[in-house]
Amino acid sequence: MNTDKKRNLRIYLVFLISFLTFSIYGFINFNKKTKEKINKPSTENAIEITSEKATNNETKSIDEVGSEYKNTSIDLVKEFLKSYHLIQSTNPIDDFKKSKDILAEPLYLELENEVVGNSSVKSKGLVYRTIEDMKVYDYSFDDYSKEIHVRADIHSNWLNSDKKISSKNELTKYDFLITNFNGDWKISQITTKIY
Predict the structure, then answer these.
(1) Which residues, 6 or more positions from 2, have their beta carbon under 8 angstroms from its beta carbon?
(2) Residue 148: what are its φ and ψ, rounded to 5°?
């Protein structure tokens, strides 16, 4: 019986040693393949860009496309704020009409009515509005809905009809939702808070 125990123990040890050897070999081999994949430039995470201006299709990495989306969305927000928030004349609708191409149509119509309504009402001597500081931040891209979220803070002053400061350092916080409409990025929703 003693010899059976020794024989079983030897078989068990051989099995254990071979299992450990194969496990270590598999782990090392898997680790090498993973390092090769990480270091190898991948075209898997690339998006094909078709441009009307270019004759050849080009492929860009997701990071490059994300950077372009970020720059485009920030430019849209700044352009909108300069046409909507900044009031340089007694007829602000003229400045606001510049933002027609960067706003979704329902939002444009809603804001146009607001601008027309606000300019027709006497506003306690507040005629013009300046932008003292503009900060666009908190960019995020929603992979599921394919929409971009951007926030902006604006410090501004209200001026009277003589262009003298009536209300100073008003903070307005904007949240923007930017959506792709047939290849054109447009602002589709805006929320604001005034402090």
Answers:
(1) none
(2) -115, 135
> Of 124, 129, 173, which Cα lies nearest the Cα of 151?
173
Output the DSSP codes for 68-97: HHHHHHHHHHHHHHHHHT-B-SS-THHHHG
Same domain, 85 and 18: no
Instruction: Please indicate, yes or no, if residue 51 is contained in any of the structural domains.
Output: no
Is the pTM of the predicted complex or chain greater than 0.85? no
| Same-domain pairing of 118 and 180 | yes
pLDDT per residue, tens digit, the chain (195 aa), is 688 888 888 888 888 898 888 888 887 877 665 555 544 444 444 444 444 444 444 555 556 656 788 889 999 999 999 999 998 888 889 899 999 999 999 999 999 999 988 877 766 778 889 999 999 998 898 888 889 999 999 999 999 888 999 889 999 999 999 999 988 999 999 999 999
Catalogue the long-range contacts made by 54-61 (C-beta closer than 8 Å, 24 or more residues apart).
Answer: none
Domain that holds residue 124: 62-194
